[in-house]
Amino acid sequence: MSLLISSLPKPHSMYLSFAARTTLLVLIVALSACGGSDDDTPSSNPNLPDIPSNPTPEVDTNWLPAGGVATISSDISRPFLQIIPTLPTSSLGNISAGRELFITQWTPAGEGRVLFDGVGPIFNANACTQCHSSEGRQPTYAPNGEMRDAILFRLGNKQGIAHPYYGEQMQHQSIDSSVATEGKMLYDVITAVDSPLSTVSFSFIPTDSNQPLGDSAISGRISPQLVGMGMLNLIPNVDIIAAADADDVNEDSISGRVHWVIEGSQQQIGRFGWKAINSSLRIQNANAMSQDMGLTTSVFAEPNCTVSQFICKTLPNGGFAGGPEVIDESLDAVTEFMTALAVPERRIGNLQTFNQGATLFAQTGCAGCHTPKQKTGDSLRFPLLSQQTIYPYTDLLLHDMGTGLDDGVKEKNAESYEWRTPPLWGIGIVARDPEARFLHDGRASSLTEAILWHGGEAESTKNRFEQLPDDEKQILLTFLNGI
Ligand code: HEC
Ligand code: HEC
Question: Is pLDDT of 21 > 80?
Fold first, then answer.
């Protein structure tokens, strides 16, 4: 089965002569100036070839601050959702407004809080902070068997078709009894006979029993900690494209590919979310407002109900004077806050052990996807963030992660078995919480379990990790906890 999946043709596979590649390489470089900026300008052509990725990554132990100028002390009780302290005070106005909009509990339309109402009719949570916490990840699976609000569920299939009634995401809350919630999810922890790993499976209980799930698959998505979002937004397109290797030309069995998505009439590089479906922070935030909170914006002007959800669809939109519920100024302020998010500094106990861990991280192949070092492009909004060396441990590319992690849901052009390499900076702070969960649906209860779930392109890396002597495994984990 695993073989079958990995032998499927890659949608962006192209076979080009060397000359054609060279011509296109020039093209990419020429176009690259538009990508990875914070002004959401359109990026380059979708039909570009893949360029061989770097050879075995060099291990550079000449550590600069983890997030460049965006680095903050990690020695605080709430290390996430902190604002970069070095930004000029003149920029704080919008950022603080954005922070306010991020933490506020939105109310249903018509309750008189013009700036903060419009949530629903159906939604998952009424505040961004219900899912994104300043401490790390919100608990997902409570010990008493309850599932918490900070996990959401995508519904769809391998062809990329959303559920005809529920749409692409299940909303389990509604503003009041006049609008039915879509249903609720139950989970089960399953222990496989032939594997040391347990996993979670979900079952859907529809509120309206006439609207079954049918053959739609359910994909659980835990809410990631938000670290250095603005810095990730600034990684130039050309660097993401240059690291892609869809045909595995360099034969390292890792073949990341760019997630090209269509936005309006433009092709863009998807960067955010577990499957990199959103190309910029602004679109990611508007998407969260729409799908997670039922808030309309100028980006997603239609309510998050499908045409079949008649009551939900016909309730008045709470927008002021017929406009969206969240005005552009608010969406932009939230985006400024997200752009201004700091990166916690490294936690290095013993530098020699940390450096050894960095070497093991590269040697086992982790760095083939979790790219240690990136450089930001130029920021028009906050020039201070330009040309910073950062250590996010991601290539922002999609990888075939094998059948074990196949969720059965294709999103945009990301196949059901493809996932974006998640950034790993700050993951050790998340892991301090014994309830923290890892991987897209939170099936892994520790960093080691997360590694052991890696398959597909990461199969040989996973095997190399498993074969490490215990003390070296520990050194690698110590490094992971410190980055
Ligand atoms: C119900 C929980 C929930 C709420 C509410 C929520 N989010 Fe999220 N957020 C998520 C999940 C889950 C993901 C990953 C989604 C995916 O990939 O499917 C995510 C992803 C993100 C990302 C991208 C992170 C990355 O590493 O790529 C950003 C930025 C973000 N959310 C911002 C926001 C903002 C701003 C709000 C409020 C307007 C918000 N979120 C509200 C759950 C939530
Ligand atoms: C082929 C690319 C690839 C390689 C090689 C790889 N990873 Fe990953 N890693 C991913 C992707 C993609 C995910 C997300 C998968 C998912 O959520 O289903 C991930 C998830 C993780 C997570 C969980 C992150 C989170 O936010 O919950 C950790 C920890 C991790 N990887 C560490 C490692 C380590 C350590 C190695 C080397 C032993 C490694 N990875 C090798 C691509 C890779």
Answer: no
